[in-house]
Every structure is written in C-alpha cells, then in structure tokens.
From TrEMBL:
InterPro entries: Ni_insertion (IPR002822). NCBIfam families: nickel pincer cofactor biosynthesis protein LarC. This is Pyridinium-3,5-bisthiocarboxylic acid mononucleotide nickel insertion protein. The keyword Lyase applies. It comes from the Bacteria. HAMAP family: LarC. Its EC number is 4.99.1.12. Belongs to the LarC family. Signal peptide: none annotated. It holds the Pfam family Ni_insertion. GO terms for molecular function: lyase activity.
Length: 398
C-alpha cells in the first residue's frame, strides 16, 4: 500500500504539508485547477523552491488579495467545500479536518461548535491549505499516513485571543494523544492546521513503521528562518496492508445502547472501520437494566484517535457517553500475499511471529468473488487458497 511518513523535526503546518506533497510529485497545475473548483476567490498562490539551512525544499503559501476576510463558522465552511465539484474523497477529508478544528476551538472557548467563528482558521489560507492537502493525498494515491513525534517549538505566539504560550490553546487541544516535544527552538512550529491534519489522518505518531520501504524523500518549507531547517520531511513509499506502527498504544472505547434503530448499527460499524487508527469495531448483545435487551458497541483504536472516534460515536448513535479503557495488544507481523490461482488472482493474509508463519487466512471478498464467478463451493475455494499459500511460502523459505 502506498504510504507516507512525515518527519516533523521542525514541526508541521498546512502550507509545509502542501509544499512537501508538491515536492513529492503533486503537479502545481493540477493543484491550482482543483482549488479553482472552490467558490472562493481573492487569493494568490505562491509556489517556489527555497533553501533552508542548505536543504532544498518546496515553499507553498496563500496570499490574500484583500486585507478583509469574512469570519466563517463551521456551516459556512461545510457549504464552501460540499458545494464545490471536488471529489467526494477530497470533500470528506477536508470536512473531517475542519470538524476537528471546530471541536478544538469550541472546547477551548467553552461554547457549542455551532457558535464558533474560526478567525484565522476560517480565513482563505486555511481553507486552501486543508483542501489542498486532501487534493494532494488523493492525487498521489496515499492510503496510509504515519508521523514522527511533533516538535512544537517554544515561546509565545500572537493570535486573535492575545499573546499565548506555545503550543497555542487550540493546538494543545488538538495534540491530545499525540506525542510532542520542544528542544528550545523559538517559534510556533506546529500550527492548529498542522495539528488537525495529524490528529485526523495519521494512524500513529512515533518511529517509522517496520517494513516501510522508502521510494522518495521530499521537503516542504515553512516561513521561518531558524537554527534548524524549517521544513517537514516527507518519506513516500510502500508498506504492507497489515503492518502496524511500532510501539502503538491502544484503547478500547465502549458504549451500551438500547434505544437506537437497528438499521443504523451496520452503518456506524462501516463508518468507524474507515477511520485511520481504528483496528476493530464490533457489536455484542447484552441485557441492560429493567430486563431490556441492548447492544454494546466496542472499538479498538490507537490512543491518539480516542477523541476523534468518541466524537463519531456520540454523533452517529443515541449514546450519551462512552467509557475508555487501556488495552495491551500483541500482534503477529502481518503481510498480504497475492496468489496466482487457476481462478485468477486472490489475496491471502499471512501472520508471522519471529519469522515463523503461524496463520494463513484468505481474503473473504476475493474468495467470494471466485466462488460466484466459477460456481465453486466457497469452502473449497478457501481450502485451495490456504494450500496454495502454504506451498508458496514453503518454496520461498527454501
């Protein structure tokens, strides 16, 4: 699977992320054409190569052509994005990031999300940055995102709320569950937009995942001149579908439900399983107080995604609260192997421990498609896939 690993040794911001995507192969002309689908104007894009402490990097920024920008709420931003002709994938990613920003601002100010006006976050540059990131990820075919720990910088930053310590309040809220540090570099290295992108899209923040094969290295420049290169380093490459990030802390989120339309459960499970960082989601039948039958919804999730997934559960179900528990997990090293069979290609999941194969499991959807196409019993297709996979693995080990 195509993946990126972001080395945030000098922080991350929206424009740094787009600069890195451009440096990794996103065509500038394509980005401009896609951004033109947004119903916003009065801005100019800056895209150029710069040198940051001897490192060549791509610098991207948005320059407003008029000093006044309207203060927008979350509904305004949803309307701008959803009414554009951008792809559904781009719209979904961009709106997810803005929702996370809105939730953080609302928490900081103690008001409902509907009452939040985004100020800097709602300005044209943030809209272009967030939508541009979603465009770049789709164009490059990125399926998985990992990051290092985030270097946030130190000192104070001036924002619409006054002079605030770094990380700024909204950024600090967004960094819940995300490891970060400061090595004394003065300046705001992680912006709210950068923190929201990591919080929403990154599966894990820590060492590069085992089995990540680097194919390209790109740099996205920031606006500051520091004692270190003000840039984010993007490694683009591939990682096996089952690869887990190293040292990944997990949590279990649970809630009991007894008053929801049963038709909604399947939708909620499907929605949860699409979110980065969700490892499993399942339902258990339970008996609740007063003898009422109910359903327990359980989600196994990376620790840095707890806030996001809790919000999804509370938004999409009738639950009034969730409980969160620590969870120790042990995983086999997983690899997806594609087999050439008499029926065509099919995928098999292989589980190893210390290099020894312990489990071989065919992909259900592939086996189902073969069984239907060739009018073969599904159980026989399964058995054949397992036998073929074992022969292949034995031959490879000789």
């Amino acid at each position: 699977m195509k993946a990126i690993y972001l080395d945030c040794f000098s922080g991350i911001s929206g424009n740094m992320m787009i600069g890195a995507l451009l440096d990794a192969g996103l065509p500038s002309e394509y980005l401009r054409a896609e951004l033109a689908k947004l119903p916003v104007t009065a801005y100019k894009l800056i895209d150029k190569e710069v040198i940051k402490r001897g490192i060549k990097a791509r610098y991207f920024n948005v320059e407003a052509r008029q000093w006044f920008q309207p203060s927008r709420n979350l509904r305004d931003i949803h309307k701008i994005i959803s009414e554009s002709s951008l792809t559904d994938t781009v719209k979904e990613k961009a709106i997810t990031i803005f929702n996370r920003l809105g939730a953080a601002e609302a928490k900081v100010h103690g008001v409902p999300e509907s009452k939040i006006h985004f100020h800097e976050v709602g300005a044209i540059d943030s809209i272009v940055d967030i939508v541009g990131i979603a465009i770049g990820l789709e164009y490059l075919g990125i399926e998985r995102i990992f990051t290092s720990e985030l270097h946030v910088g130190s000192g104070y930053v001036k924002c619409s709320h006054g002079r605030m310590p770094i990380p700024a309040p909204a950024t600090a809220e967004l960094l819940k569950g995300i490891p970060f540090y400061s090595e004394g570099v003065k300046g705001e290295l992680v912006t709210p937009t950068g923190a929201a992108v990591v919080a929403c899209l990154a599966e894990a923040c820590g060492p590069m995942p085992k089995g990540f094969i680097i194919q390209q290295v790109a740099y996205g420049a920031g606006s500051m001149d520091l004692e270190i290169p003000n840039a984010v380093r993007l490694y683009m490459g591939t990682v096996s579908a089952g690869v887990e990030a190293a040292s990944q802390e997990a949590k279990i989120i649970e809630t009991n439900i007894d008053d929801m339309n049963p038709e909604i459960y399947g939708y909620v499970i499907e929605l949860l399983l699409k979110h980065p960082g969700v490892h499993d989601a399942y339902l258990t039948s339970i008996m609740m107080k007063k003898g009422r039958p109910g359903i327990k919804l359980s989600v196994l999730v990376s620790a840095n995604k707890v806030a996001d997934i809790s919000r999804v559960i509370l938004r999409e179900t009738s639950s009034l609260g969730v409980r969160i528990m620590d969870c120790d997990t042990v995983h086999l090293e997983k690899e997806i192997v594609t087999l050439e069979t008499p029926w065509g290609q099919a995928r098999v999941k292989v589980g190893r421990l210390a290099g020894q194969v312990l489990n071989v499991a065919p992909e259900y959807e592939d086996c189902k498609a073969i069984a239907l196409k060739h009018n073969a019993p599904l159980k026989e297709v399964y058995q054949q896939m397992i036998a073929d996979a074992k022969k292949l693995l034995e031959a490879a080990s000789e």
